[in-house]
Design a protein that fits this description.
This protein is α/β, with parallel strands linked by helices and about 110 residues long. It is about 40% helix and about 20% strand. The chain has one domain. It is built from four helices and three strands; from the N terminus they run E-H-E-H-H-H-E.
Length: about 110
């Protein structure tokens, strides 16, 4: 660790909903229909839009905030970020893909009171 640079600040977004967010699904499709080709492509579009915008806005960390479940977080991590073939498919530009892989993604749980 290079201690000569001091603190490093980065933009984080703690409150991103995925289509799995049961109480806030404004995405127009049901992500639980994973085996349906249409829904799979829609989720791909969601992931591409999310990370392309995050890179553009210099976001370094994203909190996936779905109500009561972490399925959206798990799908993004397992089927996209930990899947080099899927990443190449969604982000053919190597520079963009490398920046996407640098973004820290973590689950947060929202609940209503």
């Amino acid at each position: 660790m290079d201690k000569s640079i001091g603190s490093v600040w980065g933009k984080w977004d703690f409150h991103i909903h995925t289509p799995y967010s049961i109480l806030n699904n404004n995405f127009g499709f049901n992500p639980f229909d994973q085996h349906d080709n249409y829904h799979e492509k829609e989720f791909d579009r969601f992931v591409v839009k999310l990370f392309t915008k995050a890179v553009k806005e210099n976001i370094v960390a994203i909190g996936i905030t779905d109500y009561f479940i972490i399925d959206g977080y798990k799908r993004i991590k397992e089927q996209y970020l930990q899947n080099p073939e899927k990443l190449r498919q969604c982000f053919p530009d190597e520079e963009l893909r490398n920046k996407v892989q640098e973004i820290f993604v973590f689950p947060t749980l929202a609940r209503t009171v």
